[in-house]
Specification:
2 domains, mainly alpha, 0% strand
């Protein structure tokens, strides 16, 4: 069965597919895999969809964008660039790595 054939979002299945199938072969340490699955629970859960101000971090700096068009999502991401300067950011290393990758591909 495909994901879009479910009546409700199968969060457990999506988490399993991402954490165990996609990254499972790359994450070989049990503790790292446990960390990955715990982090995915923060991103793949019903609150992300139902709570318009769902916070991905304790600081509240990272929220899900409101439902919108493609252009509105792009605008949300551009406005959120100030997060690169947030010294308290728990994702700073990840964001900076993505930013460097983006700049290298330009």
């Amino acid at each position: 069965m495909f994901i879009n054939e479910y009546d409700e979002v199968p969060y457990d299945a999506i988490t399993y597919l991402t954490g165990e199938c996609n990254y499972g072969g790359r994450v070989t340490d049990d503790q790292d895999r446990r960390l990955l699955m715990t982090m995915l629970d923060d991103f793949y859960n019903p609150s992300v969809v139902s709570d318009p101000k769902y916070k991905f971090s304790p600081s509240g700096s990272y929220i899900a964008p409101p439902k919108g068009t493609y252009d509105e999502y792009v605008a949300f991401i551009k406005v959120s660039q100030w997060l690169l300067d947030d010294s308290s950011c728990c994702f700073k290393g990840v964001i900076l790595n993505l930013y460097c990758l983006h700049m290298c591909r330009k």
